[in-house]
Specification:
This protein is globular. Helix 1 links the parallel strand 1 and strand 2. Strands 3-2-1-4-5 form a 5-stranded parallel beta sheet, sandwiched between helices. The longest helix is centred in the N-terminal third of the chain and has 13 residues. By secondary structure, the protein is an alpha/beta fold. 25% of the residues are buried.
Length: 88
Amino acid sequence: MTARVWQLVPVLEEGDAIGDHARRMARILGDRHAGFIVERAAPALKRLTTHITNAEVEPGDILVYHVALASQLGQWLRTVQARRVIDY
C-alpha cells in the first residue's frame, strides 16, 4: 500500500505563495495526496481541507508541514504518530 501524504498549511488561501506551492505539490502527488490539514481556509478551498481538530492521520501516513507562521499545527504535529517532513 502506498502512503497517503497530508499537507499541513496553517491558512490555505488563494493567490498566496504557500497555498500556491502546496496546491502544486498536491497536483504532483496525484492520488497519494490525502488533503490539506488546516486551521483556516478560503471559502473556495474548504472542500480540499480537513480542520486540525478533525484530522485522522494513520501511522503510515506522511505529513508535510509548510512552516510559514506561528500555528497550532506545530504543537499538534508533535502528538501525531506518522512520518514528518518540514517544508520551510
